[in-house]
Write a structure and sequence with these properties.
heterodimer; A: six-stranded mixed β-sheet; three-stranded antiparallel β-sheet; 9 strands; B: alpha/beta; six-stranded mixed β-sheet
């Protein structure tokens, strides 16, 4: 369970919110506070006021995986294998363990063939997969994805959805403008003007949003 | 006014794209999956990348502009006002049209990705550019602004607009469709005839085609009209 109490940060104001385990879609207009919330959940920023707990601990005491919306910006190292190994090396895991884990994660995501490649020469879809591998390498308690699907086509976004579905991670919180992905999540938060206006099951939130552009595409089915 | 590609080959990293064809006035849609070479083509059309063989000729084009997928790369101003002014535009009307009324003093880099995208696209569309190249203009926009962008692109009547995208939920009315397949650019011709030749149409178009209906154009509304039989 993620507990948010009395949080005020930039435009965000959330008096009281409980987010259950599972895949949580964060939707809403640009500038509504989605990224601000995600940065707090990832522990990148600390709230000016209030408290966020992930299963009882603040985000900075939890292992966190983060992937943003600009995969170019997520790449730090030259080689893909070094990129995925980075979170493990930073926490000084023993070398043989790091190598094993990198291979395991690459296999899980289906990017074993990319390990020897140069990050700068990857396609956008490949970069996103490498960034996901890096985020999952350390076995995070929470995976936070900030419109990671915005640079992907339908097919790659489908692959991303599958990876998220398989990830052994209690909490996956992702901001998205693809309402078909939001409709397939376990719960949805709709943010506008820095407030959580609707939260709950996809069916309940999309019913509350009927008549807005925030609807799963016509003919969509679960 | 037109851009002509004659037996062009463009190489970038280990990647190679072949392209031939002529882009005349109107809105051209270039589709292809992620990694197929859309951005490479966009860069070459904008003059930022020379072909390794063949020739790209611009005829009667006085100005051209490339809008990049990630809006942060466009920012040069310290405030939204300065940013709009850097495009040679008057800040007030552009900021109002982009949904930033009264926020001219804010730092562009404090805006969200989607907000920044909205701003850059509003600036690009407010200028009269003969050749406007838009690389993934829909990415990062929220659902409401995606529809708004389609509407505004439909209003652009002069010049050549080349829209390169893999977007599959929202497209504007276009004149011609192109598709990147197997490392080459294929011209499918004018709509609606081109729609039948499309190997990877967005799913709402595919749904209409599967029912034997060819939409009049490529917007979600056209697909809906085709399926519901209110037109054609």
């Amino acid at each position: 369970m993620i507990t948010i109490r009395g949080v005020a940060h930039r435009i965000l104001a959330i008096p009281d919110l409980l987010i259950p385990e599972g895949r949580v879609a964060v939707i809403g207009p640009n500038g509504g506070g989605k990224t601000t919330l995600l940065r707090l959940l990832a522990g990148i920023d600390l709230p000016v006021a209030g408290e966020i707990l992930i299963d009882g601990l603040p985000p900075r005491l939890r292992e966190v995986g983060w992937v943003g919306g600009e995969p170019d910006r997520d790449m730090v190292f030259h080689r893909v294998s070094d990129e995925i190994a980075a979170p493990l090396r930073f926490r000084q895991d023993p070398s043989p363990l790091v190598d094993k884990r990198v291979e395991a994660v690459a296999a899980e995501i289906g990017i074993g063939d990319l390990l020897g490649r140069v990050t700068g020469e990857l396609s956008t879809g490949e970069k996103v997969k490498v960034a996901l591998g890096t985020a999952l390498a350390s076995g995070p308690a929470i995976l936070v994805l900030d419109e990671t699907d915005s640079s992907l086509d339908g097919e790659s976004a489908g692959a991303l959805r599958e990876i998220i579905g398989r990830a052994s991670c209690f909490h996956v919180v992702f901001a998205t403008q693809r309402m078909d992905l939001a409709a397939r999540s376990d719960s949805v938060l709709y943010l506008e003007g820095g407030r959580v206006v609707h939260s709950g099951s996809p069916a309940a939130v999309f019913a509350a949003l009927s008549g807005t552009p925030f609807q799963p595409p016509a003919g969509w089915s679960r | 006014m037109r851009v002509v590609l004659e037996d062009v080959a463009i190489s970038r990293g280990g990647f190679r794209l072949r392209a031939s064809g002529s882009f005349g006035e109107g809105v051209h849609l270039v589709t292809g999956p992620v990694g197929s070479g859309k951005s490479t083509l966009a860069l070459a059309l904008a003059g930022g990348l020379s072909p390794s063989s063949g020739r790209i000729t611009c005829e009667g084009i006085r100005s051209r502009m490339l809008v990049l997928p990630f809006p942060g790369y466009h920012v040069t101003g310290r405030s939204l006002d300065e940013e709009v002014a850097s495009w040679g535009l008057s800040p007030e009307p552009v900021l109002a049209a982009a949904g930033f009324a009264g926020r001219g003093g804010e730092d562009p880099l404090r805006c969200s990705l989607g907000e920044l995208k909205r701003l850059v696209l509003s600036c690009a569309l407010a200028r009269e550019t003969d050749l406007l190249i838009l690389d993934e203009p829909y990415s990062s926009l929220d659902c409401g602004w995606k529809a708004e962008l389609s509407r505004r692109l439909g209003e652009r009547r002069n010049g050549i607009t080349i829209l390169l995208t893999h977007e599959d939920e929202q497209l504007p009315k276009v004149d011609e469709i192109w598709e990147i397949r197997d490392g080459g650019l294929a011209g499918l011709g004018r709509v609606p005839e081109a729609i039948r030749l499309w190997s990877r149409p967005p799913r709402y178009i595919r749904a209409a085609l599967e029912q034997g209906k060819v939409p009049a154009n490529v917007t979600p509304g056209d697909a809906r009209d085709a399926v519901c039989g209110t037109r054609g």
